[in-house]
Amino acid sequence: MSLTEAHDPTASATTFSEHPVPLTRLSRNEVETLCLKAARGAGMPWGLAEEAGFAAGWLAARGVDGPAALLAHLAARPAGGGALTISGRIWAAQDGRALCPITAGASLDDHAGLPEGVSAAPVMVGALRHPVLAVPHLARIAKAINAAIEIGWNGEKAFISAGGEVDPAQLTALSKLQEAQVVLVTC
Questions:
Q1: How far apart are CA 187 and CA 184, in angstroms?
Q2: Arithmetic mean of pLDDT, 70-81
Q3: How many Cα atoms are found within 13 Å in the side-chain-facing hemisphere of 99?
Q4: Contact by Cβ (8 Å): 130, 105
Q5: What's the farthest any 2 CA atoms get from each other in the chain?
Q6: Which of 84, 172, 178, 182 is the most exposed place for a label (fewest CB within 10 A)?
């Protein structure tokens, strides 16, 4: 048995129980803000960081762990690069690596009504990291053009309604992908 003084700096009088702590529920706005800050801290420019926060919040509102998908993307995100090349109906990274889903999603949204956009004809997006993070942008496109969008990958498909909603099971399947080549078609 050892005795310690009341103010012994080498001993701690505080003990914590070993029971799990309940999870904290955050609002969509809190999720978006925290994810925006994480994206900025990881080096994303402001505009893309805002898009990353939007994507994580949209996914979280639909029961998918968007912040975890964003964290996985940010942790594996290569430094620099990420520039996008559009060649006909094929979208790919200039450096040949997998595309950032935030960059690709925001770019697809920006090009939605243009001749190279998804509303004009099918678009093939080369290797895309964590494709679930692009889905919120595709949902925004579906609502804007008032048409459903089919996402195809590895023989599987998911559909985004003209109202911008996705079947939860299809969204969960997309959330499990680390990287995939996707084809986007309006229905």
A1: 10
A2: 83
A3: 29
A4: no
A5: 80
A6: 178
Task: State whether residue 69 is helix, strand or coil.
Answer: helix
Is the four-CA dihedral 145, 134, 50, 90 of positive or negative sign?
negative
Give this prediction's pTM.
Answer: 0.84
Question: What is the structure's pLDDT at 80?
Answer: 59
3-state class (DSSP) for residue 181: strand
Q: What is the spatial distance between Cα 182 and Cα 88, in angstroms, rounded to a whole number?
A: 15
Q: What is the mean pLDDT of residues 64-93?
A: 86
Bridge partners of 85, per DSSP, are 92
Among residues 137, 144, 147, 154, which one has the least CA distance to residue 185? 147
The enclosing H or E element of 159 equals strand 156-160
54 neighbors 90 (Cβ within 8 angstroms): no
pLDDT digits (tens, 9 = 90+) for 11-31: 665 666 677 777 788 999 999
Phi, psi of 185 (to 5 degrees): -135, 135
C-alpha span between 53 and 35 (Å, rounded): 5
Q: Which residue's entry shows tokens 């904290």? A: 24
